[in-house]
Amino acid sequence: MFKIGDYVVYGIDGVCRVGAVGPITMMNGETTEKPYYTLVPVYAEGSTVYSPVSNQKVVMRKILTREETNDLIKDIPGMKPLDVPDEKSREKVYKSAIQSCDCRELVRLIKTVYFRKEHRLSRGKKSTAVDEKYYHAAEDQLYGELAIPLQIDRSKVREYIAESVGDPVENPDEQ
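Request: output the structure for the sequence above.
Response:
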């Protein structure tokens, strides 16, 4: 169970701070019997999310610690892009990586789209809308989480990673 003040990743809502734990009062004035987490999204000012403590439908986990974050960053150069068997399944693979809320899968998604974009540009083609959509979603989710333990603004996370390990999306197959 999470405690008040904990930072958690809550599905695609991203990083939230636990504001309260317990029954909530509904709009009709009734109080729930089940305990809920009252979550305050860190990057969506003025928003609140209510989730039953017993919820099993949405991924909810503590954010990475500073040590886990630094370990993840050290591992980035060796991480392989996602395996996308064919174009028909591309969006399904991307969506699965996003929904996993797993930082390693997000890094792999970012690398996949980056390499695909570079390849397409070298052939005179533009990046696809699907690639751009999931690339930005993965960056937002990943950098939003890593910014908390690193104690930096999320807009500085990519730069921090690049300074720590070089180009964060360097292709390990080309080394």
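The chain has five helices and five strands.
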